[in-house]
Amino acid sequence: DGKSAPIVDAIHYIDENINQPIQASDIANHVNLSTSYFLKKFKGELGIGVSEYITKSKIREACLLLKYTDKSLTEISNYLYFSSQSYFQNVFKKQVGITPNQYRNKKPIPVFMQHSYDE
């Protein structure tokens, strides 16, 4: 899909280390590129910057944790290295459109209840 090997490698590195404090320099080092070149290449290939990508990945992980675990917001926030729970909640709401608690309480509608069959 048009991504170079170092960028694919960087994405895997981010996903595997999502619960660590990740710096662009760590990733650049991991894929053997200078930080400035890596940042330019990453944004050029993915259309978003590294820090924005990391934030989106953390929020994706947070969604899974909210849906499939009973971890508290504080635990999730700490696990994903957000500076504070309130910052986590703000970022989450900005990315997802609802608060983490609203997301957690949003129960999917069972398929058999999605259509009305009485037409």
Q: What does this protein structure show overall?
A:
- By secondary structure, the chain is mainly alpha-helical.
- 63% of the residues lie in helices and 0% in strands.
- The protein has seven helices and no strands.
- The longest helix has 19 residues, at 50-68.
- The chain is elongated and about 45 Å long.
- The mean pLDDT is 91.
Task: Output the structural class.
Answer: mainly alpha
Apparent shape: elongated
Could you state the order of secondary-structure elements as H and E? HHHHHHH
Q: Count of helical segments?
A: 7
The major beta sheet can be summarized as: none
User: Taking Cα atoms only, what radius of gyration do you get, to the nearest Å?
Assistant: 18 Å
Helix content: 55-70%
Round the mean pLDDT to the nearest integer and report it.
Answer: 91
Q: Measure the end-to-end span.
A: 44 Å
- Can you tell me the residue ranges where pLDDT is under 50 for at least 5 consecutive residues? none
Number of strands: 0
Q: Strand content of the residues, in percent?
A: under 5%
In short:
The protein is mostly helical. It is built from seven helices and no strands. Helix 2 crosses helix 3 (35-46) and helix 4 packs across helix 6 (85-96).
Topology:
Blueprint: H1 5-16, H2 24-30, H3 35-46, H4 50-68, H5 73-79, H6 85-96, H7 100-105
Helix pairs in contact: 2-3, 4-6
